[in-house]
Specification:
2 domains; single chain; about 170 residues; 5-stranded antiparallel sheet; alpha+beta
Length: about 170
């Protein structure tokens, strides 16, 4: 899911929610962009699926708040939505799973060794998902891919790992 993250145009938050306290949502000078996965089937199948930018923010706390605003607009029956916050150089700062009214942030890996273990585990889940799909177990395959995506969401850029972990501690 996060293999090709790059904001590819920015759209507004649903239902006119403010992206942050008075900050313009689409100013390209703002360093943080809130994104969601591109679910366009043609883009996914071609391998060119880029994350869709939802809004830009001046700070990480503002971007986190923007994600919460978006989650508040999701209905109780809506499928959870994977969101990612990227910096101006398109590095992953933080990611989480938004559902009705809340965002469950994925805690970032804290070392290269932990990142390698996460990549290995996510690869194993994707391989299992492929086998499950071959066995006509579509639901199991989808759950396994989702779990792999959640693991990938922990692969925060090394520059942001400590900062993102601290932001999650403060938010808690």
């Amino acid at each position: 899911m996060f293999d090709h993250i790059a904001p590819n145009g920015v759209s507004g938050l649903p239902l006119g929610k403010p992206p942050s306290l008075g900050a313009p949502a689409f100013d390209p000078a703002l360093p943080f962009v809130l994104t969601r996965a591109n679910t366009n089937a043609a883009a996914v199948l071609s391998g060119e699926a880029r994350a869709v930018g939802l809004a830009r923010f001046a700070s990480l706390p503002d971007a986190m708040q923007g994600a919460i605003f978006m989650a508040e607009d999701l209905s109780e029956t809506a499928a959870p939505l994977m969101l990612a916050i990227l910096d101006s150089d398109e590095r992953l700062v933080l990611a989480g799973l938004a559902s009705a009214g809340a965002v469950a942030w994925c805690h970032p890996v804290m070392s290269a060794a932990e990142a390698r273990a996460v990549v290995s585990e996510a690869s194993q889940f994707r391989a299992q998902a492929g086998r499950a799909a071959d066995w006509s177990e579509a639901d199991l395959a989808q759950r396994l891919r989702h779990h792999a995506d959640l693991l990938d969401a922990r692969l925060v850029d090394p520059l942001w790992r400590a900062f993102a972990a601290r932001a999650l501690q403060i938010a808690a």
